[in-house]
Protein: Metal ABC transporter ATP-binding protein
Amino acid sequence: MSTPVITVEHGAVGYDGRPVLRDVSLSVTAGEVVAVLGANGSGKSTLIRAVLGLVPLSTGTITLFGQPQRRFRQWQRIGYVPQRLGAGGGVPATVREVVASGRLARRGLLRPPGTADRAAVDDALRAVGLADRAADPVATLSGGQQQRTLIARALAGRPELLILDEPTAGVDAASQEAFAGALRDFVGDGGTVLLVAHELGPLRPVISRAVVVHEGGICHDGPVPDPAGHHAEPDHDHVHPHGPDEPAGLWSS
Ligand SMILES: Nc1ncnc2c1ncn2[C@@H]1O[C@H](COP(=O)(O)OP(=O)(O)OP(=O)(O)O)[C@@H](O)[C@H]1O
Structure:
């Protein structure tokens, strides 16, 4: 069997002494698309930030591509798209410039972009359906298109593992479809994906496994669970309390 791309063993994370994740174990193998689901504040972002080494584990271990995280130096193998901070107004850069910045770790700051860099940027723009917007300032794009630009930036680095925090939250349907297609191509080329999501929408057929975080632990690891009955309806507003046996807010809270 191939070496897992990500292994978390008995991982715990706390902020200011307050535990957020307790005894979390997770393994992701090459070619998987794993969705991390769970209610607001359950610790989904914390889990992927721990994998990326952005927050330290208080106990437990993480390995990346078979190497202990603390000794891992090949961060260019991983592309990361953080949670969107809202409309990023005032960014004067063009779409191409933002996507090209995803090549910096590969080529080094002092070397001018070469043919391979330009090809990687073109491929990434095409993958997310933004080739025709390459010359436009990012600020003139819709929120969904801006999010696609950030995904293209991560893809331009030609990572083997893509980690995304709520890539489709608040994103228009066309962008969600474009992103699902880009993910499918990325995985078809041998990539591995770990993403946080609230609603899977068009991503659902691309997801191979779901991990549900609940009260600091993983309460489900397996096939994508069905959103229970009316919870799947877009206008369901979650004003009622959840039943005792339902992982509260599986899809949203
Ligand atoms: N840097 C931080 N310092 C202190 N507490 C934090 C920090 N980041 C997150 N938390 C807290 O840790 C808990 C888990 O947060 P996290 O962002 O991991 O949850 P989440 O499941 O990703 O939530 P959401 O769906 O709202 O993005 C929350 O109670 C949050 O307030």
About this structure: The two ends are 38 Å apart (CA to CA). Residues 15, 20, 38, 40-46 surround adenosine-5'-triphosphate (CB under 6 Å). Residues 229-253 have pLDDT under 50 and may be disordered.
